[in-house]
Design goal:
Structural class: alpha+beta
Largest sheet: 3 strands, antiparallel
Strand content: 25-35%
Radius of gyration: 14 Å
Number of helices: 2
Helix content: 10-25%
Shape: globular
Strand order of the largest sheet: 1-2-3
Distance between the termini: 20 Å
Order of helices and strands: EEEHH
């Protein structure tokens, strides 16, 4: 895992096709904007853990 300090409105690039922008920061929460190709599945880990049968095809399990 890589931990990076970013400020509001800063953008991270992952590979050539994915951008993650910090849209809002409020105490213990951050809102992120993610631009990625349609074939990239983006799901919060907590949702996968809570309902694994719905997201089984998106994990290695």
């Amino acid at each position: 895992m890589v931990v990076i300090d970013v400020k509001l409105s800063e953008t991270l690039h992952i590979g050539d096709d994915i951008e993650v922008k910090v849209c809002q920061i409020d105490r213990a929460e951050a809102k992120l904007g993610i631009a990625a190709p349609r074939e990239v599945v983006i799901v919060r880990k907590e949702l996968i853990e809570d309902t694994p049968c719905l997201y089984k095809k998106h994990t290695n399990n």
